[in-house]
Amino acid sequence: MKDIAVFESVERELNRQRNNIELIASENFVSPEILELAGTVLTNKYAEGYPGKRYYGGCKFVDEVETLAKERLCEIYGAEYANVQPHSGAQANTAVYLALLNHGDKVLGMSLADGGHLTHGHPLNYSGINYDFYSYGVSKETETIDYEDFKKKCQEIKPKLVVAGASAYSRTIDFEFMAKCAHEVGAIFMVDMAHIAGLVAAGLHPSPFPHADVVTTTTHKTLRGPRGGVIMCKEKYAADIDRAVFPGMQGGPLMHIIAAKAACFYEAMQPEFKEYAMQVIKNAKTLENVLKEEGFRLVADGTDNHLILIDVKASCGISGKKAERLLDEINITANKNAIPFDSEKPFKASGIRVGTPAMTTKGFMEEDFREVGKIIAYRLKNEETDEIKEECLKRVKALTDKIEMYHDIKYI
Ligand code: PLP
């Protein structure tokens, strides 16, 4: 019997995804093929272990799938070894810590307040609870990573592991320099490239390879795959990483998701993916330009990648929380975000984070993002009135009506 309540909610979410302007920088829309693979019968299969060394029978075909995923991932990034089993980005990072660190070891990661991720040492996260995390951040003047301070911290702290990568950082990261500083003090250098993995795959952000010893990423952001995580590493860490993922942290891998990851890597190898990633950056540049023309202050003065942090407090005198709500009400989805040296608490925040990956997948080009920037400005810089809200809703609808997405999907 069909569970109507759940299917109806999923149908409503499908319509939200069809009709909204999705600017959450960490989200994307997978292809119909990836969606199909994520819903295949592979969800039924237990496959603890790794291809050729499983703890269950009947793994011949899922072995084929996982081997393909591993080979493709190594090929895209030029990695020596890949583990494609982590259920998420957080679990990929946790597995790396479990593999390479002992309880209480010193680690240097980017401060969450400056754009880092929870798993890079937040006191309430597994990372901050179990290891002695220190943080580096951005300079007050440029709001870009303070590389000299980073180098000094490496030398003073002498961490066992250095973590690079961020969740809300709009500028190019100099992995080569960071690796050099880490290696000079004998630290292992890890890059969490979750946000920029698609740009790296397309050759549009400098690669963490060959500088990094270990690289983690989610597969669902700019890489445009299913929700999940992966780890790549130098061959010498491969056995430790595998052991940390299974049996260290997880039981059976999600084979349906690994199949969808394999298809994501296939798509990322096609020439069309490079065009897509180029358009993501062009669209972000366009949005940057419009927002600046409209008088907004942007953190780090703009973007080199797929995302922009808007200081809405300085620009319009409102909190990130309020800006998120105002945009939500006109069917533009973004998230409040702390900005560096924020005077507001994270739940209120002074900024919002906007990104172009999802709408670029839907087919938005520069002219569409010009209009998106203008709608954002019109909504946030004016009084909260019904007339303005209605006008914005109409303008959003005019943009989204042009696009058909997942048109043959129906859940009820
Ligand atoms: N690492 C970075 C840099 C991220 O931005 C994120 C998610 O936003 C993660 C890790 C965690 O990924 P997940 O939500 O899949 O656990």
UniProtKB/TrEMBL annotation:
The record marks H220 as: Plays an important role in substrate specificity. Keywords: Amino-acid biosynthesis, Cytoplasm, Methyltransferase, One-carbon metabolism, Pyridoxal phosphate, Transferase. One of its GO terms (biological process) is tetrahydrofolate interconversion. GO terms for cellular component: cytosol. GO terms for molecular function: glycine hydroxymethyltransferase activity; methyltransferase activity; pyridoxal phosphate binding. Its cofactor is pyridoxal 5'-phosphate. It is found in: Cytoplasm. The modification N6-(pyridoxal phosphate)lysine is found at K221. The keyword Glycosyltransferase does not apply. InterPro entries: PyrdxlP-dep_Trfase, PyrdxlP-dep_Trfase_major, PyrdxlP-dep_Trfase_small, Ser_HO-MeTrfase, Ser_HO-MeTrfase-like, Ser_HO-MeTrfase_PLP_BS, SHMT-like_dom. Catalyzes the reversible interconversion of serine and glycine with tetrahydrofolate (THF) serving as the one-carbon carrier. This reaction serves as the major source of one-carbon groups required for the biosynthesis of purines, thymidylate, methionine, and other important biomolecules. Also exhibits THF-independent aldolase activity toward beta-hydroxyamino acids, producing glycine and aldehydes, via a retro-aldol mechanism. Thus, is able to catalyze the cleavage of L-allo-threonine. Belongs to the SHMT family. NCBIfam families: PRK00011.1 (NF000586). Homodimer. This is Serine hydroxymethyltransferase.
